[in-house]
């Protein structure tokens, strides 16, 4: 069963008297444990699409099902609960909370979103700190660690709720070449270990080169799909 199924989804925005179409009849399916990138020029609809998948916005047409839920039918409270259970987010600028330690940043979603008991929180956070190689930095604050380390913490924070899906909007844009590859390899390792699907919106050729499935967007329309490793093009 597909983790995500989009059928002719459309997203329009009202700008004064103008209607701007950000996505136009876009259809695709994504399976569990996939490593997928949506690519295209600025204004192609990549971020809009991630916002729809992440239940941060609703389509104005078509059908979008994520982890079995029709996202257009969810109200604001239901959308928040659905995100907290099913989706993790990784941002370009890390979005770590500066007054919290590395450990506390990773723990935060378990306190604020899922109300996980203390013993289970400690178990999950410690396991992920070890998995991303940050256990020795757990008591430091974000301004005391490097950009690559911040993104490792962001990956751990996104995974700590055991989501089915991670959405990453330009996650390597603020990283140097070597660090970006290290973070990409870390995300692949986490995908293999936790069977989590990673979906990227990116211009970064490093991520595009490592993605196993690439969807090409242009002017709000899906223009093609490339599957690495013998899947061929569509």
Task: Describe this structure as you would to a colleague.
The longest helix is centred in the last third of the chain and has 18 residues, at 177-194. The chain has one domain (4-233): Rossmann fold, CATH 3.40.50.300. A hairpin with a 2-residue loop joins β1 and β2 (18-30). The two termini are 21 Å apart. The chain is built from seven helices and eleven strands. α5 (147-159) packs parallel to α6. It is of the alpha/beta class and 234 residues long.
What are its keywords?
single chain; 234 residues; alpha/beta; Rossmann fold; 11 strands
End-to-end CA span: 21 Å
- Based on the structure given, which CATH architecture is correct? 3-Layer(aba) Sandwich
Shape: globular
CATH class: Alpha Beta
Spatial arrangement of strands, main beta sheet: 6-7-8-3-9-10-11
Domain unit count = 1
Topology:
Layout: E1 4-15, E2 18-30, E3 35-39, H1 46-53, E4 61-66, E5 69-70, H2 76-86, E6 87-90, H3 102-112, H4 118-131, H5 147-159, E7 165-169, H6 177-194, E8 197-202, H7 205-210, E9 213-218, E10 221-227, E11 232-233
Parallel strand pairs: 3-8, 3-9, 6-7, 7-8
Antiparallel strand pairs: 1-2, 1-4, 4-5, 9-10, 10-11
Summarize the structure.
This protein is an alpha/beta fold.
């Amino acid at each position: 069963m597909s983790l995500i199924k989009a059928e002719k989804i459309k997203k329009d925005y009202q700008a004064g008297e103008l209607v701007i179409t950000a996505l136009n009849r876009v259809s695709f399916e994504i399976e569990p444990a996939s490593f997928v990138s949506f690519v295209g020029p600025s204004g192609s609809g990549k971020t809009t699409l991630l916002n729809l998948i992440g239940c941060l916005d609703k389509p104005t047409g078509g059908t979008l099902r994520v982890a079995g839920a029709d996202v257009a039918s969810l109200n604001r409270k239901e959308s928040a609960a659905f995100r907290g259970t099913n989706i993790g987010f990784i941002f370009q600028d890390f979005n770590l909370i500066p007054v919290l330690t590395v450990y506390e940043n990773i723990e935060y979603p378990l306190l604020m979103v899922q109300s996980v008991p203390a013993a289970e929180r400690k178990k999950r956070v410690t396991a992920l700190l070890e998995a991303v190689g940050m256990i020795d930095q757990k008591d430091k604050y974000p301004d005391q660690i490097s950009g690559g380390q911040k993104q490792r913490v962001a990956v751990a924070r996104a995974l700590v709720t055991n989501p089915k899906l991670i959405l990453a909007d330009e996650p390597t844009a603020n990283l140097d070449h070597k660090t970006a590859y290290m973070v990409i390899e870390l995300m692949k390792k986490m995908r293999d270990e936790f069977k989590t699907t990673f979906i990227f919106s990116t211009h970064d050729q490093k991520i595009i080169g490592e993605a196993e499935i690439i969807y090409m967007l242009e002017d709000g329309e899906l223009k093609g799909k490339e599957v690495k490793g013998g899947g061929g093009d569509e």
